[in-house]
Structure formats: structure tokens, C-alpha cells
Amino acid sequence: MQFRQSLLKLCLGGLFASVCPSGWAQQPGDYATAGSDSGRSGLNPHAGRLCPPLVVDKTFALPDTPSPSNLLVFDEKILVGDGQSNRYMLLNARTGSRFWTRTVPGSPGELDFVPASTGNIVLLAGATTSILQAVEISSSRILWSAPTSGQVSGRHPLVLPGTAVWADSARVTAADPTTGTVFWQFPATSAVPAVGTSRAPVAAAADRVFALLGDGTLAAVDLVSGRLVWQLPLAGGDGSDLAVVEGMVYVTNRSRATLLAVDVASGVVRWEQPIPGTPASPGLLLGFGRLYLLSTVDGRATISTFDPSTGELLWQTEDPSVEDGAPQHGRLADNLLFYYHSGAERVRVMDAATGTILWSLHRPGLRSLVPAAGSLYLLLPNRVEALAPEHRIFIPQLADGEGAQTLLTVVNVSDSTTVATVEFFSSTGAPLALEIGPAASTVQSVHLSLPAGGSAMLHTLGSAPGLRAGWATIAASAPIRATAAYQVVDGSGRVLFEAGVEDATAADRVRMFAARSIPTPGLELNTGVAVVNPTEETATLILRYLRREPSPALLETTVTLEPGEHLPAFLHELFSDEVTQNSWGTLVIESDVPVAATALRTQNGYQLSSYPVAISKR
Q: Rounded to whole angstroms, how far apart are CA atoms 215 and 217?
């Protein structure tokens, strides 16, 4: 994008508080398994801090895995399953070194089986096998093998304290996880007609196991005896999801396109809601006091949230990617929703409270994702990536030269010493060298040592001929905050204009007040806007001006920002001649990847004060 010289006198900053979702009460299930819990909530309440931005911390190559399909992270270990080779590999989560490789019976195929582990035991099965194996994690020794009565694919097992539970295409089995001794099977051969089970995971809560039978019946079975407690006909079927927590079992019924809430104790349906579009599989998540449904509506990846008690739709948002696609591999952790957009091939990090996308990464061919142990683990065709959260904030605008200066203050809000690195970039995303006072050193970055609760200040001198604009990032090993003060000074150093703003964070949708007026000849009051793309992807922005005066109108324009690219503009320059001399309204910026934005009130191009920039729901 060519950057017009007429815009360079605009000195903008960011009034945009750091956003990481606030604390919501978490509702963990009964026992951790497969990065989730026995209730199949999809929530890992022990994943640690994962607030974006997220950066690649470690990469582990998978040189002999032709088709890695599933991923399990536990106890500083990574288990990767490959359907084409029917092998599982256990890796060290710190170093990537391999502990062991175990081949399981079966023919090559798509591996739709998520292992379950507890203590020193993990349950494994192959892509097309009818044999379940219990493997000792420390040695890879097979503790026991259980021939099943049919396929286990799509019917993920559970390991509860003292009991392993799994389903095959014929029945559900409960056994001793150490010896394989069978406690019970349901349906027993003579108990009910042999309808088998649906291709759906089993779930458990308290003293009951929940499974979908082959005819769609939801069965609640006593965990100890295997006795049928209650059954609900036509509740689900192949590809359905189950989630159990707080006395309710939730089921997606793909054939009826509904979402059911069933009382755990009685089997009575408490509420039923229509499902928007086609639900993902898996696509039902439960955490932070909400029920999340991932689905595809008219080709668009859609996230819907419901009140678990009443079924009321709380909010629904469509992924902003230009491409059609399905949301896949949904997980919850740290008040965030993680999922993969299959069409755009993007890993999304969403605020679980509002639906705002806070970070995005392009990862073609993603097979699975797991938030665990302070990292987001990604399974890709030839590697595992561990993404770590980074304490990084953004200053969406810098201005320096011809009397314009930028003054930055940085505060360490943690209780430990940290080093903050400030990096300067031009409007094209290239490193920008600025003269920093008082020593008049020309640098592209500055390192600041900050004691616990301490602060520091740096400022550009503004003495360079010609005005230069750009933006900055500040990264540290601990949480930080920053402000930017934009000044225009005369030859004696007297400040003529100044406006101060806070650091910015990235989001996919923001809005702000915007206005332009010329009250008298020679006096123009205008809104200046700056937007920067801090991600590694190209951003497509839709800017909408909801004009209220002089007459209601909707003005719209589209802008593309390459990675690191930055756009400063006045309101009337964004929308050409459609913004008249006296106009005001709301400016909404929507992007398919998160961007950082800011706004200032200006007089004849010079800053007067800042406008608040609000992150809003889509």
C-alpha cells in the first residue's frame, strides 16, 4: 500500500487497554482425560495462562509419521497417533525427544480415536482395529489387550479412578484399567436387543456412564453395576456430541438438528433448542458458565453460546474469514475458545465471553490442537508446535520529525524485574530507525530494565528533516503497560499540541466515535484513525461509517494490510468526498485477522485529545 504524504502530519496514538478475558467461574469435569475431562466438556481448567499474542516456543519434528491424526498432552509428555502407520509416539514435551514408539493392530486408515490416560496407563487403538490395548507409559509395555466386538473408531474411551470405560460398535465395557478384568458390559447379550452403539464418545459424571446406542437412544448406565438407570429414545446418533456437567447431559442431535439438555438423575428433557446449521464433530463445549456450539451455517464457520440452564441463545458470531469453512478442534482454556477454521486454515483464539477474536495464525493442514501446561500445542503434518503466550503490547502510531515527537512510558505491573524491548517499524512494517533522547542515539529498538513495579520513559527527538510515521511493539518477560504522548514543539522546545493514549491490543472488530467539522474558515476539527496489522497474515479490513449527521447513511470501504503494515488516515480520506464538512457518527472496523486501532480528535491535523476505541461483538 502506498502511503500518501498528506497523511504524514497526522500524529496518532492508541487508547486501547490491554485485553485478556476477565475471570469467569470455571466448571471442570470429574477427571482429566484427553486434555478435557470425563464429562467431555472440552475444557482444560489447568492449562495455565494462554492470553495472546501467542508465539512459537518449541517445534518438534515428526520425521516418520506419514499421517499424524491425534494429539494428547499430559504430565510433560506428548502422545501422537498416526493412522497410516498405526503407531503412537510418546515425546518429551520439553525437548521433543522420543520416549517410545508403539505399533497397534489394524489396517492403515484415518485414526478417529483419542486415547485416554491416567497415572501410568494409556488406552490405545488403531484406525481399523477391534483390539484395545492398555500400555504402561513409563516402559511402553502392554499391560493387557481386549478384543472388542466391533470398531472403536469415533468412540473415544475414558479412564476414571479405578475404572476404564470404552465403547465399540456393539457395546460399552467397563474394566479394571490395570488388569483389564471386565466389570460389566452394556448392553449385555441378553439384556436388550442388539442395537449396538453410535459412533460417538462415551461420557461420565458422578456414578453414571452415558452412551448413545445404535438406534439413537441415550442410555445412562450405573458406573459400578452396569445397570441401565434410564434411557431416552432418539436423542442422538453417529457424530453426536455429549457433554455432562452440573447435573445435566447435553447432546447434539444431527438428524433432528437440535441441542438437548437432559437431567442426569431422571433422563427428563429440560430444554431443546434448534441447532444453527450443521454442528461440527466434535463441536460441543462447556465451560465458564456457557455452552458453546461450533457449526457451519450456509458455509460459514459459526460459534453460538447458550445458557446451560435454560437453553437461551446468549450470542452468536460468524468467523470473519473471507473463505467458507468449518470450525474444528474446539477447546476451552483460560477463558478462551480455541478452534481451527478449515477453509482459511487459521488457528483462532477467541475471547470466550464476547466472541472477539484476539489472535490468529495461519497453519495449513492442522490435525489437532490441545491447550495444556501453559502452551497451545498444534499437531501439523510433519511437526508439533508449542505456542507460548507473550507479554507484548502495541503502539499503533509513531510520529517523528519537523517538531513532532513521541514520548513513551512503560510500567512493569508485575512483582519481578523484567526487561522490556521496544521495537520501531515504518508504515510498511520495515524496521524504523529513530533518534532517541537525551543521548540522541539513532536506534531501531531499545531495551529497558524495569524493576518490580518500576517504570521508564523514552522519547524521540523530532529533529529529523521530514516527518516520519510508523508504529511500535513492546515485549517483556512479565506483564507491562505503556502510554504514548504525541507532541508538537516549536524551536524553543515549547509544546504546542499534545495528546496521550494507552497501549493497544489486537482484535477483529472495534468501533469509535468519528466526526469532521469546519466551524469557521481555516479551522478543521477531524478524526484521525490509525490501524496496524501485527499478525503474520494479510488482513482484509472492512471500514463502515455509520453516519448520523447531516443525514443517516452507511459508508463502506475495504482496505488490505500486509503483515506489519500500518494505515493512518483522516476520516474524510477513508471515505473520499462522502464525509461532508459537518458530519458525525460511528466508525466500525472489522478485520478477518486481529488488528490494533486508535483514534484522535485533531485540529488542522494536530492532536487535541483521544477518542475511546471499543472492542465490540461481531
A: 6
